[in-house]
Predict the 3D structure of the following.
Amino acid sequence: MEKQLSQKFYEAMKDLEPRYPNKKALILPALHQAQAECGWLPPEVLAEVAAYIGVHEAQIREVASFYTMYNLKPVGKNHLRICTNVACCLRGADELMSYAERKLGIACGETTPDGMFTLSEEECLGACTTAPVMMANDDYVENLDINGLNDWIERAKNER
Ligand code: FES
């Protein structure tokens, strides 16, 4: 099997290993590192992480598919994840999602043809007190409204 992950991945794992005497506990950091490197987690990468950890590939897939932060299909340069759970829903998340779909010309779960944006729905992001909330790449955007969402998208477009 041809390696997909770089030397940098293996060096990062080597640094972490002393803190994780049970190597299986390294699954989450390994998936984070692999995703940071590849942008998403294709089957070959999951297989390589499994080989590194020393578990069956199915176990890695189970973990990766449980957490929505892991991308099992390619995502755009900007990944917008709008929380549509109760607190956010009560404060307008559905309208935000509809607005984002219209603005980007895609449905939730899709990526724009130019690869710039992926739009996803999230369950509770754990920031209910500042609902509605969106994760925009690695950042939380809280107390989101249509203007804030529009501004965020426009800024990202201008940073091409
Ligand atoms: S319901 Fe949206 S952050 Fe909790």
Observations:
- The chain is about 45% helix and 10% strand.
- The beta strands are 78-83, 117-122, 134-136, 139-141.
- The chain has two domains: 7-66, 78-158.
- The chain has a mean pLDDT of 96.
